[in-house]
Every structure is written in structure tokens, then in C-alpha cells.
Amino acid sequence: MTTPTIELKPSAHPLSDSEREAILANPGFGRHFTDHMVTIKWTEGRGWHDGQLVPYAPIPLDPATHVLHYAQEIFEGLKAYRRPDGSVATFRPEKNAERFQRSARRLAMPELPVETFLEACDALVGQDKAWVPAHGGEESLYLRPFMIATEVGLGVKPANEYLFLVIASPAGAYFPGGVKPVSIWVSEDRVRAVPGGMGDAKTGGNYAASLLAQAEAAAAGCDQVCYLDAVEHTWVEELGGMNLYFVYGDRIVTPALTGSILEGVTRDSLLSVARDLGYEAVEERVSLEQWQRDTENGTLTEVFACGTAAVITPVGTVKRAGGEWRQSGGEPGEVTLRLRRALLDIQRGTAEDKHGWMHPLG
């Protein structure tokens, strides 16, 4: 399998410094995009080819393009951070590259080599380095690699043509207003994924399936929806876009991977960070009844959600049909805040990177 070199075709008219700085002053999340994107094609019989960095622009698609009808689409999310010395580094991009391969395999799509994934991300961040926010706070440059099936035709089969792209968006805090607990609605009649399905693949269909339950959570006055397992409707799995952690004093638990839970990069990182800080960090099943019972009897001291976009977000109020309870008195817990700071310090370059997670640019 050949690894394409990214041909640089930068924009002759990038956004001015003043326009870019105005955006970086209040970027929000996923609202603004940098000047460029990377594209790489895959064709059956030829493999990966025509890697290019080009000006950010719309993608022309025929109405019969495969992805529009059969949803062969996968994506990733990772961040680039400005370091104290002004340099830039991405956080664990090889983990995203490996998960991107697993997602591709599940959706019968070609697997992009890890080194090509890294080359594409490096090329975009290198070209649009000025878009990485200044060091300090939670600001970062969010990268969105994704791949779509581009064969034209309505036959139901794996496509014979694909397009891989990377775009980037400057990002502030995922939940504006600082570190404040989110409220959770437990969906007991809708499921996110089933065993043998696509729950452990990062594909748009999983998120589309979550939108109705998320709207129901909003109607119940909650920020996020939590899903249970699809078989017994008993075991806590994850939120619509984040993994969960349960804190029992010095013991920290995250639901074990079952094939219907997305293996989050932040989730994986926190297992190591927690152990580095002296906590016992384990993966095991947690039932909804256990969650409510242990909160009420005081043994479950904190709960938090985690993901690339949100980093770590404390859980405050939990609602289910016929019940409601609060975590940590509705305030961010001590362990949650300690883990959050420890991870952010590694990402921003103010703490030792003992695991070699940061990928410096060039």
C-alpha cells in the first residue's frame, strides 16, 4: 500500500490576521474553520493517491454519491495545542489513526495507513499554525479527519471510491461558562448501539441515532443523554458523545468496553493519568440501580464525562423516569477537577509527558 505525500497548494487569499484574531477571541466550538483542508483519494485497484493540501472549500457531490444513500462515512476528532514556547503539538494522534482504521474496517471502507493519517494532520496544522490559539486556558485547534464513499451509483455494496479529508476549527470551551456540572437524562427506552452493531465505530449514523434521545433529554431540562445496554437495559454505557467515569473515593471506574461503547482516547488516557496520581482505575460494569443507590448512600462520590471536545466535565444532576439525584451536591468534585487539570497540563505542555502522548509538529 503506497503512502501519498501531501502536495501543498495553499490559498492565495487566506483570512487576514485581524479577521483571524477576531475569530480566535471567541471561537466557540465548530463554528469557524481554518484556511485549508487536506484531501486524499482512494480508488479500487489504485489505492491511496492524490494527497493535497488545498484552500477550504465545498465538496461537489453527484446526487447519486454512495455516502448520501448508504452512509459509508467515518470521522475522528483530535486537538492541537499551543505550547509555552510557542510550538504546537497534537495529542495522541496515532490513537485516533488506529481507531479510524477500526471504524473503516467495520464499515467495509479502506484503511488509511497510520503514517498517512499523521502526515495529513501535520500538513494542515503546519500550514494553518496561526489558527492554533495562544497558550493558556482551554483553547485549542480541533481537527476533524473524515472519510466518505464517493462512488456514484445506487447499488448496495461497499463503494469503489472514497475521499479522506481533514478540516480544522479553533475551539474554546465545549461547555461555555467554565467548569460547571452538566445534567444527565437517562434514556431507558432508547439505545445507542447493540452488540455486533457499530457502537465501537466512530460513524455519523451513531450520532444521528442519538439526536431524538438528546432532544428528549433537552425536553426534560437536561444537557446530555445517557444510554444503557441494549440487551438488559441495566448497564450504563456512555453519553451521546462522551464516556463516563464513576469515582468511589480513591477508586475510579469506567464502564468496560462491550463492543457497543466507543473506545474514547480521553477515556483511555484518564485510566493512565488516574493511576499516575495514585488512584485505582478500573474498567467494569456499572448498573443504573448501582449508580443511584451508591450516590444516595454516599459511596459514589463523583461522576464525570470525558471526550476530546469536552475534555472532562463533571456530572451534577441525574434524571430518570420517576427519579432524580445529585452528584457532589451539584458541584464539581475534587477528584474530577484534579484529573482534569492533570490531563490539560500534559496537553498544554506544562506538565511532564511521561507517556509520550504529545506529537510535536515537524
Automatic annotation (TrEMBL):
Database matches in CDD domains: BCAT_beta_family
Reactions accelerated catalytically: L-leucine + 2-oxoglutarate = 4-methyl-2-oxopentanoate + L-glutamate; L-valine + 2-oxoglutarate = 3-methyl-2-oxobutanoate + L-glutamate; L-isoleucine + 2-oxoglutarate = (S)-3-methyl-2-oxopentanoate + L-glutamate
Keywords linked to the UniProt accession: Amino-acid biosynthesis, Aminotransferase, Branched-chain amino acid biosynthesis, Pyridoxal phosphate, Transferase
Residue numbers carrying N6-(pyridoxal phosphate)lysine: K202
Presence of keyword Cytoplasm: no
Pathway(s): Amino-acid biosynthesis; L-leucine biosynthesis; L-leucine from 3-methyl-2-oxobutanoate: step 4/4; Amino-acid biosynthesis; L-valine biosynthesis; L-valine from pyruvate: step 4/4; Amino-acid biosynthesis; L-isoleucine biosynthesis; L-isoleucine from 2-oxobutanoate: step 4/4
GO terms, molecular function: L-isoleucine-2-oxoglutarate transaminase activity; L-leucine-2-oxoglutarate transaminase activity; L-valine-2-oxoglutarate transaminase activity
This enzyme's EC code(s): 2.6.1.42
Family matches, as InterPro entries: Aminotrans_IV, Aminotrans_IV_CS, Aminotransferase-like, B_amino_transII, BCAT-like_C, BCAT-like_N, BCAT_family
Domain of life: Bacteria
PANTHER family per record: BRANCHED-CHAIN-AMINO-ACID AMINOTRANSFERASE, SUBGROUP IIII AMINOTRANSFERASE
Protein name: Branched-chain-amino-acid aminotransferase
Annotated organism of origin: Streptomyces prasinopilosus
